[in-house]
């Protein structure tokens, strides 16, 4: 059993041995570019850790791990177009550095390469199951992105709808990664399902934490401007909770700020934070996060695998929850 | 063994029994829209005819046939964005009727649904082979689209490069459809390859014919304006052949027309056609088409399947070549 840094080294080696073709350069250079921008390789790491709960020969799972990283990068490139985002990880997005055609087409080909990587899983008997899991979350990620887009132009979004959106857009992919790892290892389907729910519930908890940190993170550690969501008038879970639970006066004030452009950004952030604070929104969110987190770990506990192996997975997830930036 | 109209009825029935979800409506309504715009369902028809060379139980091939139609429609929606095309079959394109996000995301989800349809093929043992074939041509179609885009901004494109582009962009999909049909029927891999080459070569011949008909088709039967390619200064095979074989004076005149906008469209069409005619370009192209067509049918002849069954496939392809519009 390998530790996380070694798992990621093996993944990197697999990727190096399975490069994109050189030509047509305008098609494949953007694929190399987005994949080299970094990122934590969280999804393939989850897949490999899920696999290692039950089996050791990592070669059986590496193609599936690379498939999920390719899928994730496909979705980043297309989402960046839809969000008209100029930057990703401080670098120009693909459609900004190249053009719209490059963004669409390199995203398409990365999605197809994800399926090519799936087809390269050495044990062909697991491919139909892998394909079903992959297709399910791939569909859900598109549905989640559509809901996210829909919500922007809606006046009211319920907390339940919002949770469902983040579940589809990001959480099912984490669950699906773990499930695919279990499938590669021929784990019992019940354990594969528990791992799926572990990743899904942890993913929802991460997203709640993300929303919280965007407004309440440590400015010295947070990579972006703290309060960025407030300035962009984003309907985060903080906002939706406040619109559901705050006093009528605070709801009205929050709606006012959400309609205003920010002549004085600091004043706007301070005012909206004060509304959240007065109504104990951060406490409510931290509680919601904790609930999902606890439920997630219950699922992991129920997985029938050696405790020592479950520890590595548990530690990785706990480290992610320990972020205070 | 069923005749073509019955095959397409069965396909339609399969599609009706496997609809897209209703929600999110903005994601799936464009999928229903593009699939309802019509089209000849050429690719699934080829898949089913390829299957019927070797087997009868159509249920074994219908999901794969629907997969290839979904793939084709994904590529239409994304190509229409890249080409900034306002209309398809006389109706607004998806990104025109909805917006860019709908075009990108509904295309993505149709591609994923194509893989879902593949995963629904009842005989799970053929899925790895189907997946390999599908992934191969899906990649090639993206590469072909990229070459097409690249060629627009290039001064010179060789005839060989152009043929390779149309092979990747459209012909391999026809070959791949036939190959997938053979795979569903557990045909001998050699016969599956012959069918692939039959479709690929016939596909190249169709594209050459398309270029020819755009300038030389019967105005009464041709759906679009005859000479449309000339007015759009498209580097068709007619143009590339003329730039390679015409007299130096005619080459210079053609280059002049290709740089000019059309104040008098009829004059431009007439002048460019005259250049083609003087240099016997239509005859050269008809010969090239015939060569590919002949090679294609040689591949079909070599396929070891009952002659009576090969006839249906042969007739369908011959009917397509008999177009004079």
Describe the structure.
The structure is a homodimer of 325-residue chains. With 325 residues, chain A is mostly helical. Helices cover 73% and strands 1% of the residues of chain A. The first copy, chain A, has 15 helices and two strands. Chain A has helices at residues 4-17, 25-36, 42-52, 62-82, 94-97, 100-119, 127-152, 159-184, 189-216, 228-231, 237-245, 248-259, 265-278, 281-302, 307-321, and strands at residues 87-88, 91-92. Chain A has a two-stranded antiparallel sheet with strand order 1-2. The longest helix of chain A is centred in the middle third of the chain and has 28 residues, at 189-216. Chain A starts with a helix and ends with a helix. The mean pLDDT of chain A is 94. At the A-B interface, helix 4, helix 6 and helix 7 of A face helix 4, helix 6 and helix 7 of B.
Summarize the structure.
2 copies of one chain form a homodimer. Chain A has helices at 4-17, 25-36, 42-52, 62-82, 94-97, 100-119, 127-152, 159-184, 189-216, 228-231, 237-245, 248-259, 265-278, 281-302, 307-321, and strands spanning 87-88, 91-92. The first copy, chain A, is mainly α and 325 residues long.
Helix content of chain A: over 70%
Counting helices, strands and paired strands, the structural category of chain A is mainly alpha
Main-sheet strand order of chain A equals: 1-2
Q: Which regions of chain A have little confidence, pLDDT < 50, spanning 5+ residues? A: none
Oligomer: homodimer
Q: Number of DSSP helices of chain A?
A: 15
Order of helices and strands of chain A: HHHHEEHHHHHHHHHHH
Average predicted local confidence, pLDDT of chain A: 94
Shape of chain A: globular
The biggest sheet of chain A, with number of strands, parallel, antiparallel or mixed sense and barrel status, is: 2 strands, antiparallel
Strand content of chain A: under 5%
- Please give the most extensive interface between any two protein chains, plus how many residues each contributes: A-B, 36 and 36 residues
End-to-end span of chain A in angstroms? 31 Å
Gyration radius over CA of chain A: 20 Å
> What is the total tally of β strands of chain A?
2
């Amino acid at each position: 059993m390998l530790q996380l840094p070694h798992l990621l080294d093996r993944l990197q080696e697999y990727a190096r041995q399975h490069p994109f073709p050189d030509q047509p350069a305008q098609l494949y250079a953007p694929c190399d570019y987005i994949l080299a921008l970094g990122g934590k390789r969280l999804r393939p790491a989850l897949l490999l850790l899920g696999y290692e709960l039950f089996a050791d020969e990592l070669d059986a799972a590496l193609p599936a791990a690379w498939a999920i990283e390719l899928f994730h990068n496909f979705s980043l490139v297309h989402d960046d177009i839809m969000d008209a985002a100029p930057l990703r990880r401080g670098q120009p997005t693909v459609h900004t550095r190249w053009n719209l055609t490059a963004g669409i087409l390199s995203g398409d080909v990365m999605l197809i390469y994800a399926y090519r990587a799936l087809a390269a899983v050495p044990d062909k008997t697991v491919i139909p199951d892998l394909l079903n899991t992959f297709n399910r979350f791939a569909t859900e990620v598109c549905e989640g992105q559509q809901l996210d887009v829909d919500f922007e132009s809606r006046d009211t979004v319920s907390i339940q709808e919002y949770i469902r959106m983040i579940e589809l857009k990001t959480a099912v992919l984490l669950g699906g990664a773990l499930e695919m790892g279990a499938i590669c290892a021929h784990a019992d389907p019940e354990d594969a399902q528990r791992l799926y729910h572990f990743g899904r519930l942890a993913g929802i908890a991460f997203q709640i934490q993300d929303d919280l940190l965007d407004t309440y993170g440590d400015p010295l550690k947070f990579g972006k401007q703290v309060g960025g969501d407030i300035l962009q008038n984003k309907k985060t879970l903080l906002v939706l909770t406040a619109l559901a639970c705050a006093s009528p006066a605070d709801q009205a004030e929050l709606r006012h700020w959400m309609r205003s452009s920010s002549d004085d950004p600091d004043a706007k952030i301070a005012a909206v934070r004060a509304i959240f604070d007065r109504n104990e929104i951060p406490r409510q969110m931290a509680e919601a996060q904790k609930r999902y987190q606890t439920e997630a770990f219950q699922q992991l506990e129920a997985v029938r695998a050696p405790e020592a192996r479950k520890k590595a997975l548990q530690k990785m997830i706990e480290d992610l929850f320990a972020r205070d930036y």
